[in-house]
Amino acid sequence: LRAQCSQCLRSPRMDLCHVPTTREKGWYLALMAPNVKGPNYAWLDPSRLYCHPQGLQDCVADLLQPFQGDPIDMVAGIDAMGFILGAAAAAMLRKGFLAIRKAGHLCVQTLAQPYTDYSGREKVMEVRTDAISPGLRVLLVDQWVETGGTMRAAIQLVERLGGVVAGVAAVCIEDSEGGRWIRECYKCAHCVPPGLQPRFNRHQ
After folding, report:
1. In a domain, 81, yes or no
2. Residues 6+ apart with CB under 8 A from 118
3. Is residue 15 in some structural domain?
4. I need a labelling partner for 188 at 20 to 30 A (CA). Which of 42, 66, 139, 159 fits?
5. Domains in the chain, number
6. Which domain does 110 fall in, by range?
């Protein structure tokens, strides 16, 4: 898998219909494209993974596997890329989907939570106040957890409204201070095999 990732990350194009004979967990990580625009951008772009039918299905299945049999009432995705995986997970679970938004986009009554994102910028996240009732079990989904600030804000919003965080799922949860806190406090799922985790932590 490591060799496959290295080879495919260097490839400018990939056949989006190709499916490997043996689909190990995380095989679809090789579909992600590396940053070619500099330090103001994320180091990897997973959108090519989402374009691949089997890759997307296997990614969502791997994210949901640890929660098989767990009571989940709703899936919430974090603005903006978490909407893709979150909606796909909700559809697979046959549950409703809630969008947790960056401030300023919702025209209804909202609850707001300030946070610092992975780039160090101060932001505000909000959710509509009528979507989460006390005791509702919510699976939180985002594309990536780097410093953990964004996910922690989403957790705080759910819990402030009386909801229960049933779990946290992301393509990658990095081994940062915030990532470790989330793993220690909540049931988590991500797609990076242990052997590749150090490389993902170093953004290699």
Report:
1. yes
2. 146, 147, 149, 150
3. no
4. 42
5. 1
6. 69-192
Q: Is residue 125 part of a domain?
A: yes
Cα–Cα distance for residue pair 114/194, rounded to 1 Å? 32
CATH code of the domain containing 116: 3.40.50.2020
Provide the whole-model pTM. 0.91
CA distances for 87 relative to 84, 99, 139, 143, angstroms: 6, 9, 11, 12
Residues 103, 73: Cα–Cα separation, whole Å: 25
- Of 143, 151, 154, give the one whose Cα is nearest residue 192: 143
Enumerate the β-bridge partners of residue 92: none
What single letter denotes the amino acid at residue 104?
G
Q: 200 near 174, Cβ under 8 Å? A: yes
The values of phi and psi at residue 75, to 5°, are -110, 135
C-beta separation of 131 from 158 below 8 A: no
**C-alpha 154: how far from chain center:** 12
Q: What is the pLDDT along the chain (204 residues), one digit of tens a residue?
A: 555 555 554 555 667 878 999 999 999 999 999 999 998 889 999 999 999 999 999 999 999 999 999 999 999 999 999 999 999 999 999 999 999 999 999 999 999 999 999 888 999 999 999 999 999 999 999 999 999 999 999 999 999 999 999 999 999 999 999 999 999 999 999 999 999 999 999 998
